[in-house]
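**User:** Here is a favour to ask of a fellow structure person. Please take any protein you like and set down a full record of it. No explanation is needed for now; the record alone will do.

**Assistant:**
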Amino acid sequence: MASQVILLVQLIGHLTGAFDLIDLMKQNILAIVDVVLGLLSTLGIITNPTKPKSGGYNL
């Protein structure tokens, strides 16, 4: 989902002429998102609710 948001931001920026995301910026943003999601899963804030014995909602 994070990569889709980055793609949308890049497209809007390019079409409006406001800015262009370079590959290094995209890699840095994805690295930050990976760290945040890893931290949230480690803390138990986000889980896999489809896991049979996770105790969460089974979607």
